[in-house]
Amino acid sequence: MIKFVTSNTHKYKEAETLFKKRGIEISWEKMKYEEIQADDNETICRDSCMKLSEKLESPFFIDDTGLYIKSLNGFPGPFASYVQETLGNSRILEMASGSAAFFKTVVGFSNQKQIYIFTGILNGNISNKESRTKGFGYDPIFIPQGYDKALSELSTGEKNIISHRGKALEKFIDFLLSSGII
Ligand code: ITT
What we know:
Elements (H helix, E strand, L loop, with lengths): L2 E3 L3 H13 L5 E3 L11 H15 L4 E10 L6 E2 L2 H7 L1 H9 L3 E11 L4 E12 L15 E3 L11 H7 L1 H16 L3
Parallel strand pairs: 1-2, 1-3
Antiparallel strand pairs: 3-4, 3-5, 5-6, 6-7
The structure holds inosine 5'-triphosphate.
């Protein structure tokens, strides 16, 4: 069974739901791993995959996600986790209400022989106020393009259909099924 290596419960729940919908079971390797600093998620994801390949003996994947806010020249980008912990959604609203923004998820898969990368993007805007529906990370302050509500107001299944993570994982699942790896 393929392992999803992440310390993040929300990420795992979204992935588990999507894989289940496609008839595939995954398992959770709940762990935090060290990440290098770089200005794009692909570089970080590839590096983490390479290092984890030396530690883990069976096929696994990871998810590195960034939030890129246009009016802040792409900040926080790949530093989304650190900024969520230090500034939080209220400070982001003060700085960037109404700005265009996008989420980017980079999924890295390793079968210990090779690393494969899959990417998904969700465009939208930073809202004017935080949604009362709390949720995962920046979801309460992110309005997806074409919607009039925050991402936190969508169910996991609804979010998966449009989200950065959903798109990256769908590409990954298509690859898994067509390559005969599972
Ligand atoms: P890992 O163990 O998988 O690394 P993490 O939470 O540290 O978990 P990231 O380094 O990818 O994950 O950090 C991205 C941060 O961006 C994360 O902590 C959330 O605060 C936020 N984030 C990621 N995906 C998100 C999503 O779909 N919606 C809202 N916020 C998200």
